[in-house]
Amino acid sequence: MSEYALVTGGSRNIGRAICGHLVADGYQVIQFDVVEPEDNNAASFVRVDLADAEATAAALAEVRQGRRITRLINNVGIGHVGSVEETSLEDFDKVMRLNARAALQCTQALLPGMREAGFGRIVNLASRAVAGIPGITAYAASKAAIVGMTRTWAMELARHGITVNAIAPGPIDTDMYRDMNPPGSANDRRIREGIPVGRIGTPEDIANAASFFLDARSGFVTGQVLFVCGGLSIGRQA
């Protein structure tokens, strides 16, 4: 019987790497995204704007037909630069809608199948920003919501054989990182110079962590937030 995994925001960057790893791990992978995949990684692509609740509901209903999807990676997200004074309510709602609400909606849709199977793996993408980084109020808030939901869902769903964990990436070489920290800028140099392991992270670093949480053998690990950050969560290089 095929084992299905759904990855939101799977066309590029971290989502693309996760899809590639899951295909290699033997899963039938479905990826949701608003943009076409960068390459053919053998995942099944569904175009959907996950900020649109009705479109998301329709896409979820489509992929559930004839499939029981027991692995979910809530990866989709957008960044937003702005201090507390600079963050408009519209900006805040836009970030929360995609980064947090979409995770809730996708999880709710797949839970009946997971409960029926007595098995499920949910991985949510948080961020090191939950520890506090100036200038990204809306983004940090959305990722803090992801951490809170992860811990709450883990407690609610453990008795059904469903684990829920989160990955909190540090600086990862993605389009979002480069948009927020242009290559060669003072901020980019400061971040890179402060990473204890001496390099910026890659999408594959995050995909490796996701593969662990999604494995059937990881059933005694739930409610955890794994910082994949090159050591930045414990301090910066002097």
Structure keywords:
238 residues; alpha/beta; Rossmann fold; seven-stranded parallel sheet
3D structure, described in words:
The chain is an alpha/beta fold and 238 residues long. It is built from seven helices and seven strands; from the N terminus they run βαββαβαβαβαααβ. The protein has a single domain (4-228), classed as NAD(P)-binding Rossmann-like Domain (Rossmann fold, 3-Layer(aba) Sandwich), CATH 3.40.50.720. 42% of the residues lie in helices and 16% in strands. A seven-stranded parallel sheet has the order 3-2-1-4-5-6-7, sandwiched between helices. α1 (13-24) packs across α7 (203-214), α2 runs parallel beside α3 (89-117) and α3 packs parallel to α4.
Distance between termini? 52 Å
Q: H/E series, N to C?
A: EHEEHEHEHEHHHE
State the helix count. 7
Strands in their spatial order, largest beta sheet: 3-2-1-4-5-6-7
User: What is the percent of helical residues?
Assistant: 40-55%
The CATH architecture can be given as: 3-Layer(aba) Sandwich
Ranges with pLDDT <50 over ≥5 residues?
A: none
What is the number of domains? 1
Give the C-alpha Rg. Answer: 17 Å
Average pLDDT for all residues? 94
